């Protein structure tokens, strides 16, 4: 998701003078994607802050965490329950809490449930990675879902993306090998130039 924020939220368009972004990471695969996203955001001159309350013991996730720490990306020790504090401090929130993993019932477990309860009430834009956290599988979902402004589908849009009504939808899937494209019948759009993300 390297060019995501420059395309969806150019630095000059941010409402706050400081280009601050909150990246909320869950304990599984989507959280690792969030860590990578935070690292890329820092490379593009944004100021990400990571909330990663339940760190995975997976060596790759630990490596991503270390990389973020070495880039001086701050980690929050707690997520403010006063939503206005988040609205006032950040330009947007990157939702890397559950992704497709949320379809397996983990959205009701802590710390994910508390994060989602907060994200449902923020007034700043939400950028969801792969699948908006808490969205049920299939084209229909519950009324208490978060409402992201931007969705970044990974590899291919999932079925739940049919009910995405935000302002921008991107696909990050240039990395999918041709063999997998054939196996799963994926026909991704053309990626412009050397971009790894394409707008849908």
From TrEMBL:
Pfam families: YjeF_N. Signal peptide: none annotated. Residues 1-188 form the YjeF N-terminal domain. GO terms for cellular component: mitochondrion. GO terms for molecular function: NAD(P)HX epimerase activity. SUPFAM superfamilies: YjeF N-terminal domain-like (SSF64153). It comes from the Eukaryota. This is YJEN3 protein. The lineage of its organism: Eukaryota, Metazoa, Chordata, Craniata, Vertebrata.
């Amino acid at each position: 998701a390297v060019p995501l924020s420059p395309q969806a939220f150019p630095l000059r368009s941010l409402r706050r003078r400081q280009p601050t972004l909150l990246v909320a990471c869950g304990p599984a695969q989507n959280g690792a994607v969030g860590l990578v996203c935070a690292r890329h955001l820092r490379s593009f001159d944004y100021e990400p802050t990571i909330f990663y309350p339940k760190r995975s013991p997976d060596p790759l996730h630990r490596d991503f965490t270390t990389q973020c720490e070495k880039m001086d990306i701050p980690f929050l020790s707690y997520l403010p329950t006063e939503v206005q504090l988040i609205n006032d401090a950040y330009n947007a929130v990157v939702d890397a809490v559950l992704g497709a993993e949320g379809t397996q019932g983990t959205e009701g477990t802590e710390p994910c449930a508390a994060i989602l309860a907060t994200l449902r009430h923020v007034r700043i834009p939400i950028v969801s990675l792969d699948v908006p956290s808490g969205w049920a599988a299939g084209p229909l979902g519950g009324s208490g879902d978060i409402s992201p402004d931007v969705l970044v589908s990974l590899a291919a849009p999932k079925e739940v993306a049919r009910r995405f009504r935000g302002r921008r939808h991107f696909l990050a899937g240039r990395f999918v090998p041709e063999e997998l494209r054939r196996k799963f019948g994926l026909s991704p759009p053309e990626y412009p130039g050397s971009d790894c993300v394409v707008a849908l």
